[in-house]
Amino acid sequence: MVNTGKKTIFSGVKPSGDLHLGNYLGALSQWVELQDQYDCIFCVVDYHAITVKQDPADLNRRTLEIVKHYLASGINPERSIIFQQSDVTEHTELAWILNCVARMSDLNKMTQFKDKAGENQENVSVGLFDYPALMASDILLYQTDAVPVGDDQVQHVELTRTLARRFNQQFSEVFKIPEVVIRKEGARIMALDDPAKKMSKSGQGAAGYIALADTPEEAEKKIMRAVTDSGDSVIYDKEQKPALANLLTIYSLLDHTPIKDLEASYRGKGYAEFKHDLAGVVKKFLAGYHLKFNCFRDEDVKEILKQGMAKAQPLARETIAKAKRAIGININR
């Protein structure tokens, strides 16, 4: 990447499930906007996916699909680096070094492991327990200034900051200390059937999320069936009307209309009319999104990943060389 003087953003998506509207609003659409402000590096973090069992053919397919989602969302490979994590071996090399800096107490604090493993912690993979160290490696390899994440990943970025500081203090100043970037609106899109839970494909029925692969008609039905709150006033109130606040957030972000303007336009109108109009907005979005997504062939994606690897590798190699020299490996090279 040519040094533009801009700060660097790094983020990635795990190819272990179909993306949904919450992923788009909370991450992908934000990344598109960040291209104007930062040098952006966006990864498909396939090594993170294999912390749980994956079908090899599905993993390969989903990896290509993630890149198509990046492109359909508006991420431009001529402005941002898009690459596959496993193509740059320095990710796992630095992860091992950071494993030797991290402490068991650091990883035992990670709440996502406890959530994902549940009561079966003794039988899950070591990788599921240890993947925050790999995530730290992903971020630190590129001297990242800022990491756009959902609020459920803030703890992992804080661990990254801790490991970077600890390494710098024990050895020498190799790593930048990255900041967290969280979208003020849309950072956490909630389930359509339960506004107390984040929109997700894991542990939810199909009614709770709108997959980006859903047909416009499927999405319309899900919006019309979405739970609402007591009363009939279309008002944004996360405490008293969490379901409606969630729907208003979705409407606002997709239609680029401030929530206050939406409240004003539906004053005196009921939920049915509001949900009907929101369904129309979602249908229009998905129809356009599918057109863009289907424009990209697998061959196009593979070439983009190849070019992205060629741009990412020199950056990763520079950082890993500094880290290895700092700890006493390859000092004379």
Structural class: mainly alpha
Gross geometry: globular
Strand order of the largest sheet: 1-2-3
User: Mind telling me the CATH superfamily name of the largest domain?
Assistant: HUPs
Note the gap between the termini.
23 Å
Low-confidence stretches: none
Count of individual beta strands: 5
The top-level CATH class of the largest domain is Alpha Beta
Task: Give an overview of the whole structure.
By secondary structure, the protein is mainly alpha-helical. The chain folds into two domains: 8-187 and 297-327, 3-Layer(aba) Sandwich (Rossmann fold), CATH 3.40.50; 206-292, Tyrosyl-Transfer RNA Synthetase (Orthogonal Bundle), CATH 1.10.240. The protein has helices at 21-34, 46-49, 56-73, 90-99, 104-108, 111-117, 126-140, 154-170, 216-225, 242-255, 259-265, 271-293, 298-327, and strands spanning 8-13, 39-44, 80-84, 146-148, 179-181. Strands 1-2-3 form a three-stranded parallel beta sheet. Strands 4-5 form a two-stranded parallel sheet. The longest helix is centred in the C-terminal third of the chain and has 30 residues, at 298-327.
